[in-house]
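retry 2 of 3: previous attempt timed out while embedding iron/sulfur cluster. Reduced batch size to 1 and resubmitted. Inputs unchanged:
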Amino acid sequence: MDNQFNNYERIYWVFTQLCNDECMHCYNNSGPHGERISEEDCMSIIDNLPDQLQRITLSGGEPLADRKLLYKILERLQEKYDNKLYIALQFNGDLLTPTILQDLIIRGIDRFSIASIDRYHKNQGERKDVLASIFEDQGIVYTEGQPMLTKTDLQNTRRDVLTYGFFGSTEDMWLGGNWARGRSMENNIWKQNGMHNFCAIPSGAIAFLGNDALDLMQEISIQLWKINPCCPGTAQPLGDARKEKIADVLNRASKSEVMRKLNDGEAYAMGESLGISEQEGLKRAIELKNICLWCDEFFTKHYDIQKLAPKFPLEVISNTSVTL
Ligand code: SF4
Ligand code: SF4
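retry 2 succeeded.
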């Protein structure tokens, strides 16, 4: 069957949660005892990636803390995509040496994105100058720090120049505050503002199915093996990337009215097809102090994200839903 999602724009893959650091804001609980998946699982996931993919970002955890696995993944990606895939590595930079950088260049990394320039990380950007000279000694060119997320970025992609950049978790950047996930929740440093629609900015679910009206790339995240429409991750994943073709999972999701609302950046209104109004969604997000916590409630109580169906008959949901 012809499946439009067999040609997809960007996948963000956390292939390990092993990390040399253990930051207090870490949304996926990475650290020295972070969760890992096997090489076999990673190879199955690569087999299940879309036949054509424009970009992948490999992240963690700290990818260089699981280097043997990272190299296997890079080699398999090069095989599958015949060296045509744009590969970005998002990492904290703590473990980078000139020799490791050469190993990464040989294995096809196009973009080196240092994601630790903020007050939460152990080094807090102190290694920035050292890292810059490691990159520049190899002829790698500095470009502005934010991950490339727009269709314009995609069109302007150059593969003849390797680049690096720096960014971190700050309020004013694209993250829009710490996510209501993992250690950020435990340490009570998550963004507590239910009116902040994180879902409608890059790394939220907006445009994950593709949205011609917006200058944003299609993007999903895979957290170890969990397929999510966004980087924070939904309460339950859309599917299991070890067992299912990503394109099939997305094709299925594209038929769901709930998923199309997320694709439009309208998470407050995701329950409308079930009789839960946008006002009710907004009210719950405000009460819970975060839009992703409203989303967790929705997928836990009202809607089965894997079956893409309401959990209860629609009249029951409508009768029990909150009103302003
Ligand atoms: S935020 Fe980054 S560096 Fe810090 S523990 Fe998490 S993955 Fe590691
Ligand atoms: S509201 Fe839900 S879908 Fe949107 S970013 Fe948060 S967890 Fe992801």
